[in-house]
Amino acid sequence: MAKLNYHHLQYFHAIATHGTIAKASNHIHITPQTLSAQLSLLENQLGYKLFERKGKRLILNEMGHITFRYSQEIFSLGDELLHALKNYSTGFAFKFSVGVTDVIAKVFSFNFLKTIYNMDDSIKLVCKESSLE
Question: Is 5 in the same domain as 70?
Fold first, then answer.
């Protein structure tokens, strides 16, 4: 099996987050055609369609939800790697991990955690969302 392309996951994540290829392409500054082609490459590599079409909107299907959760973990690990390397020379880094269930409103979670997020760069906030299942 070929290795996953980090960019393909980023494009997939943008589409899942924004709901349409047009909105996602505007957000990440690539053409809709390129974004659609990159999504097709990822789906072909994985062997599954990741979205259901509802008009112009793309809704995650079961495989899409699984891929989305893994992509969040992969991006979180990538951020942790960058943070660890950035703080390696200082020898100090504090990691603050928080788990948030999907039944809690994102606005509430963000407002609750933004104080920690805006603190010193030596503090790394890791927030993971999941269902209670």
Answer: yes
- List helix spans (H) across the chain: 6-18, 21-28, 32-46, 62-87, 106-117
Residue 6: pLDDT over 90: yes
Per residue in 77-87, pLDDT tens? 998 888 778 77
Task: Say how far apart CA 100 and CA 107 lie, in whole Å.
Answer: 12
In this structure, are 1 and 23 located in the same domain?
Answer: yes
pLDDT digits (tens, 9 = 90+) for 50-62: 999 999 899 999 9
The β-bridge partners of 98 are 127
Task: Answer yes or no: do 52 and 19 share one domain.
Answer: yes
Q: Are residues 97 and 62 in the same domain?
A: no
Q: What letter does residue 29 receive in the DSSP assignment?
A: T
d(CA 92, CA 110): 25
Q: Are 44 and 58 in contact (CB under 8 A)?
A: no
